[in-house]
Write a structure and sequence with these properties.
Elements (H helix, E strand, L loop, with lengths): L27 H22 L15 E9 L19 E4 L1 H4 L8 E6 L2 E10 L7 E5 H7 L7 E7 L10 E4 L7 E7 L5 E7 L6 E2 L1 E2 L5 E4 L7 E7 L4 E7 L6 E4 L32 E9 L12
Parallel strand pairs: 1-5, 2-4, 15-16
Antiparallel strand pairs: 1-6, 2-5, 3-4, 3-6, 7-8, 7-15, 8-12, 9-10, 9-13, 11-12, 13-14, 14-16
């Protein structure tokens, strides 16, 4: 994604696979050390090529200000690696490098980006395969708000937008292939990075869903045919529950549930999947289901930061 005006580039060059050799007995320990180091390098290289989440990866949270550079690209009608039905209506979105994308944990959160010409608020929608921890890739529309397009790359600073103002409540979209035997849902319009998603069917207890690399939350074995209650908690401890969510795939079900107020002390270690995908998922057509019944719950205590 480093080339301005182009689609994301997810190709990451492989490392050197030459193995140190020594025919002398006195140098065998050096050869062994070289092989060990090489194995570590190759392991890291393969992990990066396979899309593994970096250690201590976490999306931007709280009031921390990050400084770096920004380029731009056009995602077209795609919802990016976050598998959204499409880009936001204002087309103000951003792709993050692997460490801050954090295996889809950053999806749906917002950043305020400052550049030479001003500021812009963008939604995290994609992963930038060629971006390091201080590089971001903005939509063309967002980039032109903060810099001249002719620059191609601009120096920027950016921070998380905590509790961004949003239109409407949480949205829910069942993944294609989901059923009463395999529960998989995408949560939208949450604003802050999510810590957890739990769901239950009629008469059952809440079960914790596992975050998937394509920005869905899955429960193996399913929780029955529904309708479901879904409890959402963000990294600041804010929490809301929506009820009446149906097992209807590829439709956006809108609720009036919003994440309840709580002290904005971030946990920068939301759950991440072990092997996030580096290829955007298909973008099915969006359709809207009836509004759900909702219940807002009190926020949980803020979580601790990870120890790296």
């Amino acid at each position: 994604m480093t080339a301005p005006g182009t689609a994301p580039d997810n190709d990451i060059p492989a490392g050197d696979d030459g193995t140190p050799r020594s025919s002398r007995r006195v140098r065998h320990w050096l050869a062994g050390a070289g092989v060990t180091a090489l194995a570590a390098v190759l392991g890291i290289t393969l992990a990066v090529r396979g899309g593994a989440t970096p250690a201590c990866a976490a999306p931007p949270t709280g009031n921390a200000i990050h400084k770096g550079t920004a380029s731009f690209y056009d995602a077209g009608r795609s919802g990016g690696n976050c598998s959204f039905p499409g880009p936001p209506a204002d087309r103000l979105y951003v792709a993050l490098g692997a460490s801050q994308y954090s295996g889809s944990a950053a999806c749906g959160s917002y950043l305020e980006v400052s550049g030479p010409k001003g500021k812009v608020r963008v939604m995290v929608m994609d992963q930038c395969g060629g971006c390091g921890p201080s590089k971001i890739d903005l939509s063309t529309e967002a980039f032109t708000r903060i810099a001249d397009r002719s620059q191609g790359i601009a120096s920027v600073s950016y921070r998380a937008v905590v509790n961004p103002p949003l239109d409407g409540g949480l949205t829910f979209r069942m993944k294609g292939g989901a059923s009463k035997y395999w529960f998989a849902v995408q949560v939208g319009n949450h604003g802050n990075p999510l810590r957890s998603v739990e769901a239950k069917g009629p008469g059952g207890g809440f079960r914790k869903a596992a975050r998937q690399s394509d920005n869905h939350w899955a429960i193996e074995g399913g929780i029955g045919p529904g309708p479901y209650s879904i409890r959402v908690t963000d990294v600041y401890g804010r929490q809301a529950t929506a009820t009446g969510i149906r097992m209807v795939t590829k439709q956006v079900q809108r609720s009036t549930a919003t994440l309840a107020s709580a002290s904005p002390t971030p946990s920068s270690s939301p759950s991440v999947p072990p092997t996030p995908s580096a290829v955007p998922s298909p973008t099915p057509a969006e359709s809207v289901a009836p509004t759900t019944t909702v219940e807002a719950l009190a926020g949980a205590a803020p979580l601790d930061r990870p120890r790296c």
